[in-house]
């Protein structure tokens, strides 16, 4: 019983000494050496969202990046085990006669985006609402699938498409409703 109490006390003392060392010596010495001690888990943009800091350039962005892709990539019919880089992939396989006009999802554009506004979903690059239209990603795509488009035109096209869909559904409803009468 006394041994358990003594071991528990020593364990607590060891943990206290470790925390004391980390917070009193280790972290201040890293800051003195100009080592980045910010979160390695969250990006700068995610940290700003979590802390409630609003970035003004997001509201002022006139352009947004758009990726011209097909629903499914035509390069997924074979296995590629090389370096996961779009430029290397296209250089290798276009010389071999395999041509692709869609995104392959290796994420070279992600590495070039400082806003972390590009994600890979279903093996295809996708622009998120965090895009501010800076254009850093344009040169990273070897097939030039990324372009900048006026943000207002995107919202107009989306609303026009919704209107067309609503009219189509309304016509279908009327046709199906007449059959029941």
Automatic annotation (TrEMBL):
<keyword id="KW-0408">Iron</keyword>
<keyword id="KW-1133">Transmembrane helix</keyword>
<feature type="transmembrane region" description="Helical">
    <location>
        <begin position="6"/>
        <end position="27"/>
    </location>
</feature>
<feature type="domain" description="4Fe-4S ferredoxin-type">
    <location>
        <begin position="123"/>
        <end position="151"/>
    </location>
</feature>
<dbReference type="GO" id="GO:0051536">
    <property type="term" value="F:iron-sulfur cluster binding"/>
</dbReference>
<keyword id="KW-0411">Iron-sulfur</keyword>
<dbReference type="GO" id="GO:0046872">
    <property type="term" value="F:metal ion binding"/>
</dbReference>
<keyword id="KW-0812">Transmembrane</keyword>
<dbReference type="InterPro" id="IPR017900">
    <property type="entry name" value="4Fe4S_Fe_S_CS"/>
</dbReference>
<keyword id="KW-0472">Membrane</keyword>
<protein>
    <submittedName>
        <fullName>Ferredoxin</fullName>
    </submittedName>
</protein>
<dbReference type="InterPro" id="IPR017896">
    <property type="entry name" value="4Fe4S_Fe-S-bd"/>
</dbReference>
<keyword id="KW-0479">Metal-binding</keyword>
């Amino acid at each position: 019983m006394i041994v358990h109490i003594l071991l528990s006390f020593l364990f607590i003392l060891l943990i206290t000494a470790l925390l004391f060392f980390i917070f009193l010596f280790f972290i201040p010495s890293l800051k003195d050496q100009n080592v980045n001690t910010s979160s390695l888990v969250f990006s700068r943009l995610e940290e700003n969202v979590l802390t409630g800091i609003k970035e003004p350039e997001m509201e002022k962005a006139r352009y947004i990046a758009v990726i011209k892709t097909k629903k499914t990539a035509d390069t997924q019919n074979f296995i590629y085990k090389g370096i996961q880089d779009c430029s290397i992939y296209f250089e290798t396989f276009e010389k071999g006669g395999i041509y692709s006009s869609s995104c392959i999802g290796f994420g070279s554009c992600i590495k070039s985006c400082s806003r972390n506004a590009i994600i890979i979903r279903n093996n295809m690059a996708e622009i998120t609402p965090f895009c501010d239209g800076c254009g850093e990603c344009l040169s990273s795509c070897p097939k030039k699938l990324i372009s900048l488009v006026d943000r207002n035109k995107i919202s107009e096209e989306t609303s026009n498409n919704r209107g067309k869909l609503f009219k189509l559904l309304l016509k279908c409803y009327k046709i199906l409703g007449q059959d029941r009468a």
